[in-house]
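Bumping with the actual sequence this time:
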Amino acid sequence: MPRTTPNEKIQTRAARSRLPQRRKPYWLCLRPGQLHLGYVRRDPEQAGHWTVRRYNGGGTYKVARLAGVADDIEPANGATVLSFIQAQDLALRPTPQAPTAAPMTVAQAMVDYVDYLQTSSREGAAITAERAGRLHVLPQLGEVQVQALTTDQLRHWLAALANRLAKRNGHEDALRRGRATANRILGTLRAALNHAYAECRVPSDNAWRGRLKPFRNVAVARKRYLSVPEAQRLLNAAQGDLRALVQAALQTGARYSELTRLKVHDFDRPSGTVGIAKSKAGKPRRVYLTEEGCAFFHRITVGRSGD
């Protein structure tokens, strides 16, 4: 058995549990300039996994994920669950020559990112990312290999996208609006490329990290609030369940997806609050209600079971 290389950050289960969750590996050098063993854990509720990085010379390297997961939750068995020692042994073991996988394209990176959002229970973000990719990214960049992307290529794509969106807008403020929308689409593409890099599917993120900048000073907040008469007219125009949904939105300021996930037990009358278990940012919060809001939520929840 090869000699263990000491590293308290990833060597033991207890040490790994103290590491902040992130998508990039924590690397341990096994052979200087040649071989590294990495540990990745993105979700505290799930076990992490081991990754091997082998240098090929000329500043390039090959990254591969080891089969199975780390022994963060279950005991190691040497096959589907690997301890640090077992992962190190596999990393140091000579590997047979295998056919080289085809380089990842931008289209494949977008598909992988959408799948990641869906498996992370971020369905709304997955729908937005899929639509942005299908309409604005794949027609121009879909067949391009991610590792072959250049900063200039992405800049030209972003400028052309902004101009195309501005022409479609037709508003006197069309160019600013087009650039603001292009920035949001760039954010989606950058997230997909970052995901591919974090999953060790591409060797570098230099093309889109740091040097690729979005358009500046184009985002303008919409400072528009309904007046009381406008809110009342909106309620009067709504009927049935839609009226209750509109009233809940006016009383809480919560998003549609947040309101449709509410349960009866989320309303706490003694404290005068409604609990939002899952927000857009993924963090729970409580919304404090007015007396009118408390009366409304009491009316639609009284006598109903908590679930």
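The tokens above came from a reply further down the thread. The beta strands are 22-31, 35-41, 49-57, 60-65, 69-70, 81-82, 267-268, 273-276, 285-288.
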